[in-house]
Specification:
The protein has helices at residues 2-17, 21-30, 44-51, 53-81, 87-103, 116-126, 128-145, 148-175, 191-200, 215-219, 234-247, 259-270, and strands at residues 179-184, 203-208, 224-228, 250-254. The chain is α/β, with parallel strands linked by helices. It has three domains: 2-126, no CATH class; 128-175; 177-270, Response regulator (Rossmann fold, 3-Layer(aba) Sandwich), CATH 3.40.50. It has a four-stranded parallel β-sheet with strand order 2-1-3-4, with helices on both faces. Helix 1 (2-17) packs parallel to helix 5 (87-103), helix 3 (44-51) packs antiparallel against helix 4 (53-81) and helix 4 runs antiparallel to helix 5.
Length: 271
């Protein structure tokens, strides 16, 4: 089911990206394809040069909007799925696919623009602070050098560098977490709340509401395993207990899977 959700989101995002506003607007204005004018690029910059500032700005905003829409779509999918487990993956996939759609549009012979504005929309929605930094860098380079492509390349490089730094910092923060918790059972709709509660108690959490194929490979070496026995099978309980013995983890069983029950357990065990 997860793979189907990801595939459908990717397809829809690509189709949204394939709606090239510079081509549509140029045909509405003059009956000509923007790709036959100026630099031949189907994007906001060529619209600016060919049809003036107003149409350039309109095209830019519409292209940015495509990136915003697909990330909102990924968030909607997360809410429908009832879990944030796939959100980080599905949001990046949606972002990549909308950019691919802009650059290689299905409706216009797979010849589109450069995807700069659409990429900006995606980045702003994934992390608006990073998006602003990238935008400032890109605009500054464009203003100084007069090369749009150079600005977009350096802006993209800046985004990659910032994301790498964020991952390193996050990894270092994870190292100082006091307790690694694995929650087995519960409800899909509660996963976000479980993780939030664990974070509030300075715990790093993994949540398995369903029996994974290889539980041992996925839970790692936790300090604590919490079993919500009212929502799991006897087989899952046995597997969890066996894994706890293997990694010398404490096991706490709870007959309720509410947020308050989890809070009570963490306060008792973690202090």
């Amino acid at each position: 089911m997860t793979y189907l959700i990801i595939a459908l989101t990717a397809i829809v995002s690509y189709l949204i990206g394939s709606v090239n506003f510079s081509i549509l607007l140029s045909k509405m204005l003059s009956g000509k394809d923007i790709r036959e004018s100026g630099s031949g690029n189907a994007g906001a910059t060529n619209m600016l040069r060919t049809y003036g500032k107003k149409m350039g700005v309109i095209t830019l905003l519409l292209d940015v909007l495509k990136g915003i829409v697909v990330i909102l779509l990924s968030r909607f999918v997360k809410n429908i799925a009832g879990t944030d487990e796939i959100y980080p993956v599905i949001s990046y996939i949606a972002g990549v696919c909308v950019i691919l759609g802009h650059n290689f549009p299905l409706y216009f012979g797979f010849k589109g623009g450069k995807g700069v504005a659409t990429s900006l929309g995606v980045v702003l929605m994934l992390d608006w602070k990073v998006g602003l930094i990238v935008a400032v860098v890109a605009i500054a380079v464009m203003a100084v050098t007069r090369y749009v492509s150079l600005g977009s390349i350096l802006g993209g490089a800046m985004y990659i560098v910032i994301e790498i730094v964020k991952m390193i910092v996050t990894k270092n923060v994870d190292v100082i977490q006091l307790v690694c918790v694995v929650i087995i059972g519960g409800h899909d709709r509660m996963v976000c709340q479980y993780k939030k509660i664990c974070k509030e108690h300075n715990c790093k959490a993994k949540v398995f509401t369903q029996m994974p194929a290889k539980l041992g490979n996925q839970i790692g070496s936790p300090d604590l395993i919490i079993l919500f026995t009212n929502t799991v099978s006897h087989k899952m309980v046995r597997c969890a207990v066996a894994e706890a013995e293997r990694c010398n983890a404490d096991v706490v069983r709870s007959h309720t899977s509410s947020g308050s029950a989890l809070t009570e357990i963490l306060e008792r065990v973690c202090g």
